[in-house]
What does this fold into?
Amino acid sequence: MSTPTPTEINFHKKSHELEVAFDEGSRFHFSSEFLRVHSPSAEVRGHAPGEETLQIGKENVNIESMEPVGNYAIKITFTDGHDSGIFSWDLFYDYGKNHEAMWKDYLQKLKDAGHEHKLN
It folds into this structure.
């Protein structure tokens, strides 16, 4: 089964959220912070399992710009200068379906590392 295709991608400047709607009816909202700390870049994910780098202090990061990458993804540039992650349609769909668990896991990792999330 192939991943659904986005029908809409809208950035809401006021809420700092990216909204992605898919052709099968799903619609997901991602905060700029969520996308930044879960960037699919080597800087965040590492080059192998276990090499991930916990992203700290990204509560106020925003999306500066987006550009298409072929017909399968977008490249996002964040206001902290990070711009090396390519967000594919598959990734957005996976992130949308697993958003709540991923966010809770991130907040727990911050807490375990002794950092308080400033927007909680």
The two ends are 38 Å apart (CA to CA). The mean pLDDT is 92.
